[in-house]
Amino acid sequence: MNPYSLEDKLIVVFGASSGIGKVTAQFLSTLGARIILVSRKEDMLNDTLRGMENQQSHFIRTLDLQSEDQVKGWFKNLTQEIGVKLDGMVYSAGVHYFTSLRSVNQNHLLEMWNVNIHSLIHLIGGFSNKIISNDGASIVLLSSASSIKGEKGVVGYSATKGAVNSIVKSAAAELSPRSIRVNSILPGVVETNMSKQIERNLTEEQYRLVKEKHLLGIGKPEDIAYSIGYLLSPASRWVTGTNLIIDGGYTL
Fold first, then answer.
1. Domain spans of the chain, in order of start
2. pLDDT in tens, 206-226
3. Rounded (5°) CA angle 212-20-25
4. Cα dihedral 14, 190, 51, 11 in deg (nearest 10)
5. Which of 144-168 are b and which e, b meaning 16 or more Cβ less than 10 Å from the residue's Cβ?
6. What pTM value is reported for the model?
7. Which listed residue, of 63, 70, 128, 208, carries a Cα 20 to 30 Å from 40's Cα?
């Protein structure tokens, strides 16, 4: 048996329209998984689907993670539609605003909280229902290396990702009776639209220093996708409550 295989496993990927989520969904399809692609923008999800294997085996669903009404009960509605329990959940959706302490915007803080934490907690709770997921399922959350290493201008974002690290510990303990594993990945800077936003908000010299801190260079979405595949697979069956740092040496 190949311990890294996800053959016939049904996995939902939130934030599958771009960046790490998009590449992760496409990679998981090569491992044999059936994917439920979730984002606000259906056209972008269709673009993700075009890069996947066995396209007819996957599903596309739209969801606004800032809408509590949409988030609550979402999993119940989903399983009623497709009639199959889930084996995995990836939460790659996230909101990031680059701002100094003295210019923090309340609306930005609330948006980050709603997407990065509030909706996440609701969705983990929904996924953990026995009628939604199989025993032994795996949940993988995307945190950030900025949650454990201080950097200027990311106080709100770092706070939400620090909360994700704590959620992993509590959820892993609570869901262990069903052998549902909960882990997160803490990426360093990865080549995505979010990293481009960071680059735009830094001087050339500041961004050069950020790159230098990544001893193996800036990461690519595939570097994170491969780790997510591991945490979803039987190869990591004895791993839970772990915040896995994948950062090219950034936090050393």
1. 10-190+220-246
2. 888 888 999 999 999 999 999
3. 150
4. -30
5. bbbbbbebebbebbbbbbebbbebb
6. 0.95
7. 128
